[in-house]
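ok so for the tutorial part 2 we go from a plain amino acid sequence to predicted structure tokens. step 1 is just haveing the sequence, like this:
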Amino acid sequence: MDVYEFNQRAWDQQVASGNRWTLPVSSELIAKARSGDWE
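step 2 — the prediction. this is what the tokens look like for a chain of 39 residues:
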């Protein structure tokens, strides 16, 4: 088993299913969160 390929496929599945941890966020949103402004 190729661990790299296994992980790549697993993450690709997570992205395809819309997993919230795979969605990009903007620098502005990160800055707001760091200052305590959570959405």
